[in-house]
């Protein structure tokens, strides 16, 4: 499969835009799309998925599920049909599982392989091959799986699964939905009760979807507010029809664009509003952002709304680190909003940003400097002094380091820049938001 990493860099210059108006839709939620394919592949029978994100990351998951025996097909109307193999039925993939740029595919699939009697080699692009995997191989190793990783515990990495695996009780040392989900997925084919103890709540799509597919899953919150999530296996999953809501992490780029481009009044339809994902909206509202939730409803078991976003005079704040897990992927574009606000914005508790597709604290700090923004990089956050609504200087080129969210964030910065913003490579945007540039052009007349 071709990945953006195989392509020559695609530089692009983003210039000032007209106000963002009208109504747009962003593609399906990436987290839910990965899980929809994986869980459908673990059912005996046919599941249907509509609204699936067709970005490279999710397509890597689809290819992996096919390689392990599931029948995964897209029809001409964009509806995906999966005939699964059943829990316990995953087959030995004939070749390495090529994960491209996708941390979610890699870590969740390692969980699935861990409790099946199969061996799989995981490979990825240069960005993914630098990311830490011990956070999943440690607990999955306690369950009995064996690993042969590259130096530093990274990809390429061989997983030798085991059946029956051993149930564990595991307290997450890092706030990570990927680690939580890897263990819960391994638990599906593990006899007995596996418990994940989650001191800091992270996105809960796995829990919601596992219940929806009929897994024996319970969630208890103890007196200290700590969540104990238990799965008793082996589970029998029932095929489902799944409608994937729009991705709030993709909507984030257009929310910030509409707030900072003067005169904007934009509706973004069908955006997932799960509270474990809406931290960005809360923080932007604290800064004076005008974001209205219209037509609130439920889609595919998740809360959804249409968002009306109007250009707003933002002011800097100190962001409460407790909100970080609910906006972990939104910080790159949030920093662009901070760069346009009046006064100073202070962030902390962002150590996890250093181990994403790039070191997002360093990459954003260097990029913001390159376009004339005053920024200080601290160990676990950035301190940004905003322009107070005056256009940014612009310039570049900004180095995106195979990180889709960096590329999209600086595209948004370009919309309010004097000289435009030069982004060195827009190809990685295809990992999570293939239509981003077309949507930006249609809603702004930019690029
Ligand atoms: O579980 C998921 O779908 C995700 C969890 C988060 O990663 P971590 O678990 O590493 O925080 C997030 O950054 C990623 O984009 C998607
Ligand atoms: C961190 C991200 O994804 P992943 O971990 O799946 O590569 C992201 O999309 O911002």
TrEMBL record:
<feature type="binding site">
    <location>
        <position position="35"/>
    </location>
    <ligand>
        <name>3-phosphoshikimate</name>
    </ligand>
</feature>
<keyword id="KW-0028">Amino-acid biosynthesis</keyword>
<feature type="binding site">
    <location>
        <position position="31"/>
    </location>
    <ligand>
        <name>3-phosphoshikimate</name>
    </ligand>
</feature>
<dbReference type="InterPro" id="IPR006264">
    <property type="entry name" value="EPSP_synthase"/>
</dbReference>
<comment type="subunit">
    <text>Monomer.</text>
</comment>
<feature type="binding site">
    <location>
        <position position="360"/>
    </location>
    <ligand>
        <name>phosphoenolpyruvate</name>
    </ligand>
</feature>
<dbReference type="InterPro" id="IPR036968">
    <property type="entry name" value="Enolpyruvate_Tfrase_sf"/>
</dbReference>
<feature type="domain" description="Enolpyruvate transferase">
    <location>
        <begin position="17"/>
        <end position="437"/>
    </location>
</feature>
<feature type="binding site">
    <location>
        <position position="103"/>
    </location>
    <ligand>
        <name>phosphoenolpyruvate</name>
    </ligand>
</feature>
<comment type="function">
    <text>Catalyzes the transfer of the enolpyruvyl moiety of phosphoenolpyruvate (PEP) to the 5-hydroxyl of shikimate-3-phosphate (S3P) to produce enolpyruvyl shikimate-3-phosphate and inorganic phosphate.</text>
</comment>
<keyword id="KW-0057">Aromatic amino acid biosynthesis</keyword>
<keyword id="KW-0808">Transferase</keyword>
<comment type="pathway">
    <text>Metabolic intermediate biosynthesis; chorismate biosynthesis; chorismate from D-erythrose 4-phosphate and phosphoenolpyruvate: step 6/7.</text>
</comment>
<keyword id="KW-0963">Cytoplasm</keyword>
<feature type="binding site">
    <location>
        <position position="30"/>
    </location>
    <ligand>
        <name>3-phosphoshikimate</name>
    </ligand>
</feature>
<feature type="binding site">
    <location>
        <position position="356"/>
    </location>
    <ligand>
        <name>3-phosphoshikimate</name>
    </ligand>
</feature>
<dbReference type="InterPro" id="IPR013792">
    <property type="entry name" value="RNA3'P_cycl/enolpyr_Trfase_a/b"/>
</dbReference>
<comment type="similarity">
    <text>Belongs to the EPSP synthase family.</text>
</comment>
<dbReference type="InterPro" id="IPR001986">
    <property type="entry name" value="Enolpyruvate_Tfrase_dom"/>
</dbReference>
<feature type="binding site">
    <location>
        <position position="176"/>
    </location>
    <ligand>
        <name>3-phosphoshikimate</name>
    </ligand>
</feature>
<feature type="binding site">
    <location>
        <position position="178"/>
    </location>
    <ligand>
        <name>phosphoenolpyruvate</name>
    </ligand>
</feature>
<dbReference type="InterPro" id="IPR023193">
    <property type="entry name" value="EPSP_synthase_CS"/>
</dbReference>
<feature type="binding site">
    <location>
        <position position="405"/>
    </location>
    <ligand>
        <name>phosphoenolpyruvate</name>
    </ligand>
</feature>
<feature type="binding site">
    <location>
        <position position="131"/>
    </location>
    <ligand>
        <name>phosphoenolpyruvate</name>
    </ligand>
</feature>
<dbReference type="Pfam" id="PF00275">
    <property type="entry name" value="EPSP_synthase"/>
</dbReference>
<feature type="binding site">
    <location>
        <position position="329"/>
    </location>
    <ligand>
        <name>3-phosphoshikimate</name>
    </ligand>
</feature>
<feature type="binding site">
    <location>
        <position position="30"/>
    </location>
    <ligand>
        <name>phosphoenolpyruvate</name>
    </ligand>
</feature>
<feature type="binding site">
    <location>
        <position position="178"/>
    </location>
    <ligand>
        <name>3-phosphoshikimate</name>
    </ligand>
</feature>
<protein>
    <recommendedName>
        <fullName>3-phosphoshikimate 1-carboxyvinyltransferase</fullName>
        <ecNumber>2.5.1.19</ecNumber>
    </recommendedName>
</protein>
<feature type="active site" description="Proton acceptor">
    <location>
        <position position="329"/>
    </location>
</feature>
């Amino acid at each position: 499969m071709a990945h953006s990493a195989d392509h020559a860099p695609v530089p692009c210059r983003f210039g000032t835009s007209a106000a963002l108006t009208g109504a747009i839709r962003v593609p399906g939620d990436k987290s839910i799309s990965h899980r929809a394919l994986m869980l459908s592949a673990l059912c005996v029978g046919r599941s249907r998925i509509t609204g699936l994100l067709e970005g490279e990351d999710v397509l890597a998951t689809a290819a992996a599920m096919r390689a392990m025996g599931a029948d995964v097909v897209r029809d001409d109307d964009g509806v995906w049909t999966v005939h699964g193999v059943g829990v316990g039925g995953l087959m030995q993939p004939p070749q390495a599982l090529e994960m491209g740029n996708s941390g979610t595919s890699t870590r969740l699939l390692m969980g699935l392989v861990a409790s099946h009697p199969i061996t799989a080699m995981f490979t990825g692009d240069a960005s993914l091959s630098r990311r830490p995997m011990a956070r999943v191989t440690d607990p999955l190793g306690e369950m009995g799986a064996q690993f042969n990783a590259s130096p530093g515990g990274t990809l390429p990495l061989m997983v030798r699964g085991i059946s029956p695996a051993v149930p564990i009780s595991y307290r997450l040392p890092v706030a990570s939905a990927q680690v939580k989900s890897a263990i819960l997925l391994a638990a599906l084919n593990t006899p007995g009760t596996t418990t994940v103890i989650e001191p800091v709540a992270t996105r809960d799509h796995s829990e919601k979807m596992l219940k929806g597919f009929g897994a024996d899953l319970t969630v208890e919150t103890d007196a200290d507010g700590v969540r104990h999530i238990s799965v008793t296996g082996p589970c029998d999953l029932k095929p489902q029809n799944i409608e994937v809501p729009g991705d709030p992490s993709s909507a984030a780029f257009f929310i910030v664009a509409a707030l900072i481009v003067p005169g904007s009044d934009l509706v973004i339809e069908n955006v997932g509003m799960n509270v474990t994902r809406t931290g960005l909206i809360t923080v932007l509202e604290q800064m004076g952002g005008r974001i209205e939730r219209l037509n609130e409803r439920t889609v595919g078991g998740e809360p959804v709304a249409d968002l009306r976003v109007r250009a707003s005079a933002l002011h800097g704040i100190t962001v409460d680190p407790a909100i970080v897990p609910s906006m972990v992927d939104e910080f790159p574009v949030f920093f662009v909003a901070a760069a346009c606000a009046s006064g100073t914005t202070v962030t902390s508790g962002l150590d996890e940003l250093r181990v994403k597709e790039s070191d997002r604290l360093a990459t954003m700090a260097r990029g913001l400097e390159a376009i004339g923004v005053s920024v200080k990089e601290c160990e676990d956050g950035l301190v940004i002094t905003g322009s107070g609504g005056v256009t940014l200087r612009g310039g570049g080129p900004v180095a995106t380091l195979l990180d889709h969210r960096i590329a999209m964030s600086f595209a948004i910065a370009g919309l309010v820049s004097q000289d435009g913003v030069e982004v060195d490579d827009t190809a990685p945007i295809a990992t999570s938001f293939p239509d981003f540039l077309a949507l930006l052009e249609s809603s702004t007349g930019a690029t």
